[in-house]
Please model this.
Amino acid sequence: MLKKGSKLNSILTGTCPRCQKERMYIVRNPYNLTKIYKMYDHCSRCGLHYQLEPSFFYGAMYVSYGLTVALGVAVFLISKVCYRLELTQSFIAIIIALIVTMPVTARLARNIYINMFVSFDKDVVKK
Model:
């Protein structure tokens, strides 16, 4: 499932989508908020430029929106069905969950977005 060559591997590990050998982010910890979006310009192994075009990662905002909506719905359902919380308490749980997971969803959105446009290339890995 998470073997080299799968998009899921690149998305979850934050590695280059083409060769999946190098990490895209300078700092691995997404909770280092001052450097959450700091990425290398290109992959040192295969040479892929991560910023495929100017303002490329603005499109990741749409992916981030989808992720946060899905997370909000999941937290709401869990809080209402499993814990039987009141509506106000459920919304507080959603807000807390979104704030706590914001750095992870932001990076995950970028990983998903770049993997939509760049695929694994086994020929690049062999070099």
Observations:
- The longest helix spans residues 87-117.
- The chain has four helices and no strands.
- The chain has a mean pLDDT of 95.
